[in-house]
Amino acid sequence: MAAEVISGTKVAEEIRAELKEKTKEIKEKKGITPGLALVRVGEDPASVSYVSGKTKASEEIGIFSETIVYPESASEEQLLAKIDELNKDSRFHGILVQLPLPKHINADKVLEAIDPRKDVDGFHPVNVGRLLIGDPYFMPCTPRGVQELLIRSGNSPEGKHVVVCGRSNIVGKPVMAILMQKQKGANATVTVVHTGTKDMASIVRLGDIVIAAMGAPQVIKADMIKDGAVVIDVGVNRIPDATKKSGFRLVGDVDFEPVSQKAKAITPVPGGVGPMTVTMLMANTVRAAEQQAK
C-alpha cells in the first residue's frame, strides 16, 4: 500500500492562518506589530528568491518587514555596524542575515553579532546552547518545521526511535536536540548516522521515523526503510532531466517512489519540508515580538 503523503504546503497554510490571528491579537492588545529585518549582501539569485519569499510570507501574516540590501563589495565592518543598529531598533523583533555571504565576510562573526533574542534563525551559539538544554529562545526553522510536520500529521515522535541521517549544524544536530528533549511532541530515542557510520543501512532500518538530511540525491533506498516507517525528506537536490524545460528536476535525499511503497507516511520534494522553513521563521518572529513585549 502506498504511503500517505504529508503535505508541508497544507500544514504551513494551517500554521500561517494561526499566526495571522496571533499577529492581529498582538497588534490589538499590545499595540505592537511584529517586525523582521532581512539583510542581504549581493545579488545571488537563490538569495534574492529566498528573501522575496520571506517578504511575501511576512505580508500575508501581517508582519512588518524591511529588506536591507548591500552590494557584494560591502565590508564586514559595514555589516556589523548595521546589525548593531538593528539590535537597538525596537521596530524589529527579528533579524535575519541571508546566507551565504561573500567570501571576504566572516559569516560566524556576523551571526554572533545578532542579539540572541532577535536571532529568529536560531543559529546564534547562545540559542544553540539553550536548545541543547531544552530552553531555547527560538528553534532553528527547518528542524522545528520537521517536528511540526510530525506532530500535525499524527506521527508524534514521542516514544519512537528516530534515525536522523546527517549531522549538519543546520538540520541534523538541531533536530536531534529538539526530538530528544523531555517534552511533549519530542521524547524520542534518537540515533544519528552520517558519512562516518559503518553499515548505515542496518541502523536506518531500525527507525520508526527516518529524517533524511544528507544533501545527496536519493541515497535513502527502499531496502533501508522498515515497513510502516514515517519518512521525512529534508533534502533538495537538482538532478539533470532532459524532459524538463529547465534541464533539471528537484529530488530529495530519499528515493521517493520505491520508499513510498513501504513507508506509512512520507514527505514529498518539493512541497514537504520546504514550505515549513519560512513559516517557522514567521512563527519565531511573532514569538520574538511577544517575548520582547514582556
* Total count of domains: 2
**β-strand number:** 11
What separation lies between the terminal Cα atoms?
50 Å
Order of strands in the sheet with most strands: 1-11-8-7-5-6
The CATH homologous superfamily of the largest domain corresponds to NAD(P)-binding Rossmann-like Domain
Highest CATH level, the class of the largest domain: Alpha Beta
Secondary-structure class? alpha/beta
Strand/helix succession: EHEHEHEHHHEHEHEEEEHEH
Low-confidence residue ranges:
none
The assigned CATH architecture of the largest domain is: 3-Layer(aba) Sandwich
Q: Kindly provide the radius of gyration, computed on alpha-carbon positions and rounded to a whole number of angstroms.
A: 19 Å
Helix content: 40-55%
According to CATH, what is the topology of the largest domain?
A: Rossmann fold
What proportion of the residues form beta strands (DSSP E)?
15-25%
Q: Give the biggest sheet.
A: 6 strands, parallel
Q: Count of helical segments?
A: 10
Average of the residue pLDDT scores: 96
The general outline is globular
Question: What are the salient characteristics of this protein?
Answer:
294 residues; alpha/beta; Rossmann fold; 6-stranded parallel sheet; 3-stranded parallel sheet; 11 strands; 16% strand
